[in-house]
Write a structure and sequence with these properties.
- The chain is α+β, with helices and mostly antiparallel strands.
- The chain has one domain.
- It is 19% helix and 28% strand.
Length: 124
Amino acid sequence: MRMTSPSSWSLPNVWHLASDVKAELTEVEGHVPTCLALINALHPTAAVCGTPTQVAGELIRKLEHLDRGPYAGPVGWLDAAGNGEWGIALRGAVIESPETVRLYAGCGIVDGSQPEAEPGGDVG
């Protein structure tokens, strides 16, 4: 496995730390796991769920009072050989009816954040 050192990824209003990970998979019980198996093992990421995942996920469901639907789900491609490349759906929409669209967007609230200072923090 090769992982690059974390590097900064600058966007207009936020900085992210990013590391690329590349690996060759070995056989497990006679099969090489597909990238879908890896996604299943990694989803949801700590960045959108917290850690430990099970405890954080339960707390999020209790506090949010909504079904996240496709928010923070894996989006990408998979070829016939099992190769793929994936990202996390932090922005998206679902057409719920001819009159209703549900929009999803992430926000980087962390310990010490002031929600009212976040973009959209005054929307209630």
